[in-house]
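Model: You mentioned two targets. I'll fold them one after the other.
Researcher: Yes, keep them separate.
Model: Target one:
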Amino acid sequence: VGRRAPGAAAPSRGAIPRMGGGVAEGRRIAALARAAGDPWPRVAAAQWALESAWGRRPSGANNVFGIKAWDGSGTLVATTEWENGQPVATSARFADYASVADGVAARVRLL
């Protein structure tokens, strides 16, 4: 899962909805992960906090884990990837989901 490097450009805001953040949202993410069958729902909440800046920067519609869209669909986002220990500014397509619960379930399927 890609991460933005410190100081990297924020993703395009296009159609990406902002969501709430904070501890309450982290608990909700953990509950959604548990309901989706995640054996480590607290890890899902921690990943949510890191990948989406506590819900402030989802990488696609309802994508709070930075899951890439490998089929050419999704939201095009400016991002920074690391290659050979060096940051490289690029853009990538990140998966879009109908709801945060769908995004959490997609993460569980990747485990």
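Model: Target two:
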Amino acid sequence: RKILWEMKHLEKSGPVWIGFSCHPQSTTPEVMRVHDESPAAQGGLQPGDVIVSVNGNRVETFRDLLGAIHCLPAARVARLRVLRDIHELEIELEPRLAEDRLTTRVLNHP
């Protein structure tokens, strides 16, 4: 479904970029860093947030999170449920194709 959606709407497909980092050895998908001007930053994700679901699919481990992100189509709104302090919030963001991110970086930084 991801490939079909991207090909229909973007005329290309590939891995997506959301723009945050988690500690890969952590047992929970806690956000360590949010990259400037990324979909994650634009959606309001913050360091310390713990991601508990992606598009309604429960996320309990870093590996679960990687699998959920891998299935996200680019340029289509994704909904992340996060724990921030003692509150559960929903964050909407729009993943970008990773190759588009690299092209933008090259063009903006000679």
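Researcher: Noted. Anything on target two?
Model: The first strand starts at residue 16 and ends at 17.
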